Amino acid sequence: MTPLLSVENLSWRKVTKTGLFQKPSVFELQPVNFELQPGETMAIVGENGSGKSILAKLLVGAEIPTQGDIYLNGEKLAPDNIRERCLKIRMIFQHSQGSLNPAITLGSLLDEPLKLNTTLDSKERKEKIEQTLTMVGMLPDHAHYYRHMLSEGQRQRAALARALILNPQVLVADEPFAALDPSVRSQTVNLLLKLQNDLGLGFVFISHNLGIVRHISDRVLVMREGRVVESGKTNDIFTWPKTEYSQKIVSAYQTLTTKK
């Protein structure tokens, strides 16, 4: 079976000058390899600065890899063809408040990518927007709302609608639940699981919340200082972590849940 998404030896390197008499700062993402099947969720975990967000940006085309390849349904994605990448692999941002333009309505926000990337006429675009809003648990009338008129949970659903509007095959989410309160977070998690089941989406999920990781992911990549230190099925990682670093973060999670 051909994987939905394949990543082969994907790496990235950035040199940053920090001062006139200081050595440049270098960050390297060591070669990353993984496969994602339709309807599967892969979580990426690790401390700040481990390379999780860089990997997410490489997947959606926000950064260009130093080397390595990305395949979708067995077809290689050209690293410099950002438009093709954005159509098929979409991002859900961490802070929906900052990612939604306050000066335009939600309908206009969703209409723009349809204008730029499809041949739909205005009536068809309106229907598509209404269908997508309904899909994420909002009302068609929400198309007329501005950002400040939406609740916290509705803003996150709006961000999800924007990610889904072009019918992607893979969603990449970088800490999508971090800013949500527990009740809204639970609703959003359940919504994502339902959409994944209905649409057969592949889901790459970056999070520090190991409780959610354990609940929704099929497999886990553990990253540290730009390297994948361990990968495997979620239950295996949480039950029999092999590396010292994986054991440390799993132990911290288990201690926290025991205290509760």
UniProtKB/TrEMBL annotation:
Keywords associated with the record: ATP-binding, Nucleotide-binding, Transport
Pfam families the record matches: ABC_tran (PF00005)
Source species of the chain: Pseudobowmanella zhangzhouensis
Molecular function terms, GO-annotated: ATP binding
Domain ABC transporter positions: 10-250
Domain of life, per lineage: Bacteria
Protein name per its UniProtKB record: ATP-binding cassette domain-containing protein
